[in-house]
Task: inverse folding
């Protein structure tokens, strides 16, 4: 029996293990992630927002993807919607902000969901979001770090409605 014949079963087992690990990776990603699903209403008194806007978030998860829909009301009362559906795997997805198109990519870091917003039209902003729930799951904090152009962070605090 040759040395190559001895290693064939080991190599075959290694290939099976690697294939199984790749197939299970999305499920493992969600198994360790926080539960962000629900309808979240912004608490203006606890939030630090630069322009007086308010927001309602609806977050759902299905088929290893996260869907975030937002209703945003500016201080004059004008309302617009924004949303995306994306897997938390770092790959880019379409983001529609009331007809304004850009890209987002999502990933988990510990107990937080991170969202990078990029690739909008010329003059668009680049920012990174961090979404975290309280230990009881009744409060969601969204921190927006403004990268380009740079600016002070904004913190939105939401109470869970459903």
Result:
């Amino acid at each position: 029996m040759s040395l190559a014949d001895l290693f064939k079963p080991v190599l075959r087992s290694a290939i099976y293990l690697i294939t199984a690990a790749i197939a299970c990776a999305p499920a493992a990603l969600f198994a360790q992630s926080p539960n962000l699903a629900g309808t979240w209403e912004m608490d203006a008194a606890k939030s630090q927002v630069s322009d007086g806007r308010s927001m309602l978030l609806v977050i759902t998860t299905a088929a290893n993807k996260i869907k975030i829909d937002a209703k945003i009301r500016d201080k004059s009362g004008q309302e617009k919607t924004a949303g995306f559906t994306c897997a938390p795997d770092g790959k880019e997805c379409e983001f529609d902000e009331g007809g304004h198109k850009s890209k987002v990519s999502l990933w988990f870091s510990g107990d937080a969901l991170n969202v990078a917003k990029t690739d909008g039209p010329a003059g668009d902003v680049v920012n990174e979001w961090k979404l975290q729930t309280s230990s009881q799951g009744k409060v969601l904090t969204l921190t927006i770090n403004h990268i380009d152009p740079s600016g002070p962070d904004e913190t939105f605090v939401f109470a869970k409605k459903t």
In short: The domain at 38-160 is CATH 2.40.128.20 (Lipocalin).
